[in-house]
Amino acid sequence: MRPPHGHGHHPPRRPSIGITPDISTVTKELPLPRYELKAAYSDAVLRAGGLPFILPYTDDRSVIEAFLDRLSGIVITGGAFDIPPEAYGEAARDGLGQLKPGRTAFETLVLHAALARNMPVLGVCGGMQLLNVALGGTLFQDLTKELPGARPHEQAHDRTQPAHPIDIKEGTVLADCVGKGQLMVNSTHHQAVKQVGPKLVVTATSPDGVIEAIEAPGHPFAVGVQWHPELLIDSVPGHLGLYKTFVGRARETRR
């Protein structure tokens, strides 16, 4: 009997990828918090060959370890909120946005536990900022107030279209993903990496000097990007390379 696929070729195994969701703010109209996630994140993981799973919050480390036992990679997503400045040893200043301490606490635990296992990690937008803070770096609390000469980094137009170029350093994991040189990216953030964590290197900058990407050189894949590649995979297809390389590393490094 012939195997059902014709030649018995199975597609490569889809590694399980955990994605951290956002949580809604409680209002009179929506009194019960709900997890929220832009579909673009899970779509990008699927298109890159991964199997996405959404991770509900917990402060129980044993639950986080149980999550990671079943996963091969982690995406720390972005959202319309800021990381509490106490996390990097500063007091709140004018320009700081809404905080979601429960979310940040959960994502910090997940990030540390995943890095300790050498599990591939992709930090997107706020996820890149958290990667930097978790590894000892600091943030500009508000670019317009704290970095004179920074252009606006919160684009008004459609986020599935790019806003400005970045320069990618060669010889980096990021360059392996999307190529070295210039790349057009979107821009939806008012904070940015200030001091880079000691275990991280800068891998891309925008023309005004804002740090656009970081990675941990000693790690199989610990990459943070300040833009949203998952929203650009149709308009600038090279951005899918970031998710494809990440999913490929997750497939390889899984025990």
Question: If you consult CATH, what is the topology?
Answer: Rossmann fold
Q: How many structural units, i.e. domains? A: 1
Can you name the CATH architecture?
Answer: 3-Layer(aba) Sandwich
Strand percentage: 15-25%
Number of alpha- plus pi-helical segments = 7
Sheet/helix structural class: alpha/beta
Oligomer: single chain
SSE pattern, N- to C-terminal: EEEHEHEHEHEHEHEEEEEH
What is the typical, i.e. mean, pLDDT? 93
Question: What secondary-structure arrangement, pairings included, does this model have?
Answer:
Layout: E1 16-19, E2 22-23, E3 35-36, H1 39-47, E4 51-54, H2 61-69, E5 73-76, H3 101-116, E6 121-124, H4 126-134, E7 139-140, H5 143-146, E8 164-168, H6 173-178, E9 181-185, E10 192-193, E11 201-205, E12 211-215, E13 222-225, H7 240-253
Quick overview of this protein structure:
This protein is about 25% helix and about 20% strand. It contains seven helices and 13 strands. The strands form three sheets. Strands 4-1-5-6-13-12-11-8-9 form a nine-stranded mixed sheet, sandwiched between helices.
Walkthrough of the structure:
- The chain has 255 residues and is an alpha/beta fold.
- It contains 7 helices and 13 strands.
- It has helices at 39-47, 61-69, 101-116, 126-134, 143-146, 173-178, 240-253; strands at 16-19, 22-23, 35-36, 51-54, 73-76, 121-124, 139-140, 164-168, 181-185, 192-193, 201-205, 211-215, 222-225.
- It has a 9-stranded mixed β-sheet with strand order 4-1-5-6-13-12-11-8-9, sandwiched between helices.
- The model has no long low-confidence stretch (mean pLDDT 93).
